[in-house]
Amino acid sequence: MNLIPASHYLVFSLVLFCAGLFGLATRRKERVRFLLSVELILAAAAVNLGVFSHTALRLPEEGQIFAFFAVILSAALSAAGAGALDVLDRDGRRSGPESL
Amino acid sequence: MNNIASLKFFTGEMLLLTGAFIVLFRGPATARPGTAKYTAAAFALLAALAFRHPARSLDLFYGAFILEPVTERLRRAAAFVIGAAMLFSFRRTPRQQEAPAEYWSLLLFLEFGLILLAGARNLLMAFLSFEFVCLDVHLIALCAADEKGWKSGLEGLLRGGAGSAIMLYGMSFLYGLSGSLDFSSMAGRAGTGKELLLYGIALFLVFAGAFFRIGAALSPAAFSLWRRAEKGRHGN
Predict the structure, then answer these.
(1) Contact residues, chain A, for B158 at CB < 8 Å
(2) Helix A31-52 to helix A61-89 angle, to the nearest 10 degrees?
């Protein structure tokens, strides 16, 4: 079976991170895009942790558990962010999907 | 040391958690408004008295938490700071009158989080306790904020998420470079040349994200204070 080299995963995670960082830097006013950018960076970190768990000196599960917590944080942030968007939208400022 | 044996040295922290949950769930139901704050203060005092300091350094919870002289001092400092915050908070602000029980339980949770952060021995514990502390600080700051500060605090919640994500990305590189989540293993594999540069970049991301997160957590209180100062200056 041909395994995908670790460097490919790292490049993929770097692309995700750069896309997220670009979104954070350029779309600060649009909250949905801002939230999506944060999710991209969290996904990049989770990919990194998954890849590095294969090269860990001891206990490779540590990295996978850490990645699991990153996914939990990502889900919690999505839920809290959606709630915050709902409250802030009542103020009359556009931040819903139509702002995309 | 295993989990059950570790609990013997964790009595103070368990009291803090118990007090926080009792105040959180029972506080709003009680008829007398002062009950929550006196209960929280009593549990904080009991916890401070129950902190145990062993003669030698101990690895608790299978090495996730370390109890050593520095941790002990930081634990006392956390207890002192939260105690002082409780004393200062006995004079209520109008916003706190709406949800006093939550505020007092958050103070107890914050003390618990600070102690965890002080004794964290690996990246995972440090990250989780840091998030816990930042969330507590954010919610406490929201309790003290006025309506506009509260809205800026919700914005800060999104901004803080960005800080957490950047910090986590840096931590993932620290884990990849050292091959372990333990701080002691990381210190032993500092590396040279290119590896050192990567360590520097990873640490930069971690600290940049952490400071961004702290700033976002404190934003509602800072915004409210600034608004009050501006109102005072312009006299309306």
Answers:
(1) 31, 34-35, 38, 81, 84
(2) 180
In contact, A94 and A70? CB cutoff 8 Å: no
| Reported confidence tier of residue B60, pLDDT bands at 50, 70, 90 | confident
Closest Cα in chain B to A56: B179
Structure confidence by residue, pLDDT tens digits, A42-95:
999 999 999 988 877 777 788 888 889 888 888 888 888 777 777 776 655 554
B contacts of A77 (beta carbons < 8 Å): 161, 164
Cross-chain residue pair A49–B173, CB shorter than 8 Å: no
ipTM of the predicted structure? 0.85
> For residue B170, which of B141, B213, B234 has the smallest C-alpha distance?
B213
CA distance B178 to B194: 14
Best A24, A31, A49, A90 member to test B by mutation, with max B CBs in 10 Å, is: A49
pLDDT at B31: 56
B123 and A66 within 8 Å at the Cβ level: the answer is yes
pLDDT of residue A100: 42
**Interface contact A16, partner B, CB < 8 A:** no
The sign of the CA dihedral B56, B62, B66, B67 is negative
**Using CB atoms, which residue from B128, B155, B161 is nearest to A38?**
B161
pLDDT, tens digit (0-9, with 9 covering 90-100), for A26-41 = 866 677 888 889 999 9
Report the b/e string of B4-33 with b at 16+ CB within 10 A: eebeebbebbebbbebbebbbeebeeeeee
